[in-house]
Design goal:
Low-confidence stretches: 4-24
Largest sheet: 6 strands, antiparallel, barrel
Strand content: 35-45%
Distance between the termini: 47 Å
Mean pLDDT: 89
Number of strands: 27
Radius of gyration: 41 Å
Number of helices: 3
Shape: rod-shaped
């Protein structure tokens, strides 16, 4: 009988030891999902902020617009045909001008000009005196079928310039200028030679973000030609006015304001990337020896215990945390989150045998 009682006591003691061993092999810790890093968003170029699309705390996907610039716009000064576009989005406008003489050219509707002189006019007071803005008629002296209509645009003594608004000539044609449509000798106001009107060179400054025209386009006065931002891109690939998020994350702060001027390199926002999510837990001094870098753990959401994630201890601090009542160390755990995980969520981390069984 005594032997039997002794055996039962030994078995009970072994059971307690086994239970204690099992408890020692499993570690349960409370933690939270934190942002491991915050990534600054820099202004890629100088300019004025036109619109801010985000606020602190917002979730953004890769490619979402954070803010956009207000561009400087270049408009057509007159009607004509675009005959040469040398710039494209991303170019430095001044560099292109240095290389090609302009960023683009517009050939006006008036293709010819006449350099005339009243010394060959009919000898009368009226014909020897022309006026700026006066309508005149032009006839080629060698091929009289080449005729046109023009307007006097400039006067310098007895010399004046006629801008041909109608008709076709050959540059170099010698022409006679008349005051009347019938082209009578009594209304001859001079003679001159035809030159081609040079295309209008259009240039701007800054970085090109949009080219609104292409070769051959017909434009009217006031039509948009180009949009630019101040400064240069210096290798930054940007073909619009918007700055987008490079990856998915949460906006931690925004410093850009509508109407404010930013310089290249200014930090205009801070983003906590989803890829940088991690779990942080406080480990007591007694449990410090039971957890080490590289250990596999099980992470469960307190809000939904059915969702669990495998994690790996990245490191445990060697120095205890400050401002805590008891001595604790911070353990940082890497894991792969999904759409159900948010910054600040409470989690339960299990380490040891239970974590291994869940793998």
């Amino acid at each position: 009988m005594k032997t039997m009682k002794r055996v039962m006591a030994i078995l009970f003691a072994l059971t307690l030891l086994a239970a204690g061993a099992a408890q020692a092999e499993t570690l349960s810790l409370n933690g939270t999902v934190e942002a491991g890093v915050t990534v600054p968003v820099y202004a890629p170029i100088g300019g004025t902020v036109d619109n801010v699309s985000v606020e602190a705390g917002m979730h953004v996907a890769a490619g979402d617009t954070l803010f956009s610039y207000r561009t400087e716009k270049t408009y057509a000064a007159g009607d004509g045909t675009v005959t040469g576009v040398f710039v494209k989005a991303g170019d430095d406008a001044e560099t292109v001008t240095e290389q090609y003489g302009a960023d683009l050219y517009i050939e006006g509707t008036a293709k010819y000009t006449v350099s005339a002189n009243s010394s060959k006019a009919y000898s009368s007071v009226e014909t020897m005196l022309v006026h700026t803005g006066e309508k005149v008629y032009v006839v080629c002296r060698t091929v009289t079928s080449r005729r046109g209509v023009g307007i006097i645009t400039a006067i310098d003594g007895t010399s004046y310039t006629v801008l041909v608004t109608e008709g076709n000539f050959i540059p170099g044609d010698s022409v006679t200028v008349y005051r009347d449509e019938a082209c009578t000798e009594l209304q001859r106001v001079g003679r001159g030679s035809v030159s081609r009107v040079n295309p209008t060179a259009v240039s701007t400054t800054g970085a090109i973000v949009n080219v609104a025209v292409k070769d051959g386009d017909q434009v009217k006065r006031g039509d948009l030609l180009m949009e630019t931002l101040s400064g240069t891109f210096e290798g930054y690939e940007m073909t619009g006015t918007a700055v987008a998020a490079a990856e998915e994350g949460v906006i931690m702060s925004v410093s850009a304001e509508v109407g404010s001027t930013v310089s290249k390199g200014d930090v205009i926002a801070q983003i906590a990337p989803i890829s940088g999510m991690r779990v942080e837990v406080a480990v007591s001094a007694d449990d410090r020896q039971s957890l080490k870098a590289g250990d596999k753990v099980l992470i469960e959401l307190e809000a939904d215990e059915s969702r669990s994630y495998e994690g790996t201890v990245r490191y445990i601090t060697e120095m205890p945390e400050e401002d805590t009542e008891e001595v604790t160390y911070k353990a940082v755990i890497d894991f792969t989150p999904d759409e159900n995980v948010y910054f600040g969520m409470a989690v339960v981390v299990t380490a040891g045998e239970d974590a291994k069984k869940a793998e």
